[in-house]
Amino acid sequence: MSETPILRPNGRAANALRPISLTLGAQKFAEGSALIEVGDTRVLVAASVENRVPSFLRDSGRGWVTAEYSMLPRATHTRSGREVDKGRPSGRTSEIQRLIGRSLRAVVDTTAMPDRTITLDCDVLQADGGTRTAAITGAYVALALACARLYLTGDIAGWPLISPLAAVSVGILDGAPLLDLEYIEDQAAEVDMNVVATADGQLVEIQGTGEKRAFRRDEMDRLVDLALGGIGQLVEIQRAILAPTLAEVAEVQARGGRRKVAPPKDEKKLWGRP
């Protein structure tokens, strides 16, 4: 691959992330929420907790984590129709929300949150490349806040998160490997790849495509290394914004928990007879 420095928008280095911003509590009523901004890409993520699980997990003693993904009509350069008008999500939307759910479940001990489902709603407010990777990175933060709420109130007995998780895009443009592609780079890239990994560099998923040409194994390895470097930086940003919450969790863990866990209430019984 070319070693010649490539001129990127805003003079960004080949191995540099776009400016990252994470805002907690972006939605008042969600058990956990975050607004993530990666350059000009903005994704709002809300974590909702329900005292039920899918039928295939009933009486299993396990919980569930899933995700939904959508893009606002004017998140892009031209208006796109709402998928609700089409009656079902597009293939792209379905693929992305399955990716987000799979990624998050890889770092959750679902036995620590029995009979509960946490749904991460990821809504793209503005898209300028890397919406799925931004959604995963922001969704982990919202998930951590929801889990902390459950744990600190004694609704679950153990801490369910195994490791921080983040994701980033990488690609090859004009022969040069680049980290965190924005839209104009993504559209022109010869090779495009999305990488999801844990804080210690364990890979959860790699989605790689030769957009304009095939790529070699050594090129893939170099892109993965580049992505893992970026994910390490993203994890540090996550840890910094979550530090007060995680400190409170650690304090309660040191005391052996807050209180005895009560079983979740049956939602049907909450409403009484019709």
Could you explain the architecture of this structure?
By secondary structure, the protein is an alpha+beta fold. It has one domain: GHMP Kinase, N-terminal domain (Ribosomal Protein S5, domain 2). The chain is built from 5 helices and 9 strands. The protein has helices spanning 91-105, 131-152, 183-188, 217-254, 267-271, and strands spanning 20-24, 32-38, 41-50, 64-71, 117-126, 165-173, 176-179, 191-198, 203-210. The strands form 2 sheets. The chain has a 5-stranded mixed sheet with strand order 1-2-3-5-4. Strands 7-6-8-9 form a 4-stranded antiparallel sheet, with helices on both faces. Strand 8 (191-198) and strand 9 (203-210) form a beta hairpin. Helix 1 (91-105) packs across helix 2 and helix 2 runs parallel beside helix 4. The termini are far apart. 39% of the residues are buried. The mean pLDDT is 92.
